[in-house]
Write a structure and sequence with these properties.
- There is one protein chain.
- The chain is mainly beta and about 180 residues long.
- It folds into 2 domains: about 100 residues, no CATH class; about 35 residues, no CATH class.
- About 10% of the residues lie in helices and about 40% in strands.
- The chain is built from 2 helices and 15 strands.
- Strands 1, 2, 3, 4, 5, 6, 7, 8, 9, 10, 11, 12 and 13 form a 13-stranded parallel sheet that branches. A two-stranded antiparallel ribbon has the order 14-15.
Length: about 180
């Protein structure tokens, strides 16, 4: 029992499994997952990677967002990188936006770089910017807006006169 050898070599002690060494996003974090059977009503804020396969009714702010084929977001997305395979109804503000063939976007896409596969559906506007700066609340920073003389909300063109008015108008647009 204890002293006899069974002829088998002992197996090495079990080591805890580690996460893959691939770069998953900011800080090398594993993604936060919104599973297919999960519906979220409210805003989501993360410093890392967000993988959305469920439904979100609210705004999303993160470093990298991936909206999977079953994923739906009804609200604004602010991120460095956005991959869209599913459906988004709202504004996307990101440095890099990739729309894949199964993507459906209704709204405005503010981007530095954009790629669109054949078959992607877009009903909205593209706004190319040299730099998309986001403040801590995920809104477009006043430094970017001060370079522009107008903002368009739906069909109304609004003249900007002060940074405070810009913030108020941006907040009103998010409330709609």
């Amino acid at each position: 029992m204890f002293g006899k050898s069974s002829g088998r070599t002992p197996s090495p002690p079990a080591t805890p499994r580690s996460t893959p060494t691939t770069v998953l996003g900011k800080k090398g974090m594993t993604p936060s997952v919104i599973a297919a059977d999960l519906n979220v009503l409210g805003n989501i804020i993360s410093d890392g990677v967000l993988d959305i396969d469920g439904k979100i009714d609210g705004n999303v702010r993160c470093h990298t967002a991936s909206i999977r084929p079953n994923g739906r977001v009804h609200g604004d997305i602010s991120a460095e990188i956005v991959h869209v395979y599913g459906t988004i109804e709202g504004t996307i503000k990101a440095k890099a936006v990739m729309l894949y063939s199964s993507a459906k976007v209704v709204g405005t896409i503010m981007h530095e770089s954009l790629s669109i596969e054949d078959g992607a559906f877009v009903d909205g506007k593209f706004k190319r910017t040299d730099k998309v700066f986001l403040d801590e609340e995920g809104n477009v920073s006043p430094s970017m807006l001060s370079s522009a003389s107008k903002l368009q909300f739906d069909e109304d063109i609004v003249e900007l006169s002060s940074e405070e008015e810009v913030r108020i108008l941006e907040n009103l647009r998010l409330v709609r």
